[in-house]
Specification:
The chain is an alpha+beta fold. It has helices spanning 8-22, 26-40, and strands at 3-6, 51-52, 61-66, 69-77, 80-88. 21% of the residues are buried.
């Protein structure tokens, strides 16, 4: 089973997502964060579940789509995946440094 490690950037992204949604509803903010975190757990048994990130052109950098968010992760080796960022689909990923 693969270990999933959250980078500081990804954790800050989750916090920002929570804070933004919580302006309207703390309940739905919490549910959104739980949904994002839960989705990453599938990677423990299927690291190749996500598709390659087209903007990066690297087979080790992949993404899972959850609602309006892209969970971008990197396969470090057969035992570890790093969650790099949680990115809103309406924003331009190429303007962001994720590595």
């Amino acid at each position: 089973m693969v270990q999933i490690r959250w980078t500081k950037t990804a954790l800050l992204d989750l916090k920002s997502i929570y804070e933004f949604i919580a302006k309207d509803s703390k309940k739905y903010a919490k549910l959104e964060v739980i949904k994002l975190k839960t989705r990453t757990q599938f990677l423990k048994n299927a690291p190749l579940l996500g598709k390659e990130v087209p903007e990066k052109g690297d087979v080790e950098i992949r993404e899972l789509n959850v609602g309006n968010y892209r969970i971008i992760y990197k396969i470090i080796d057969s035992d570890r995946i790093d969650i790099l960022t949680i990115h809103h689909t309406a924003r331009d990923l190429e303007k962001r440094e994720i590595l």
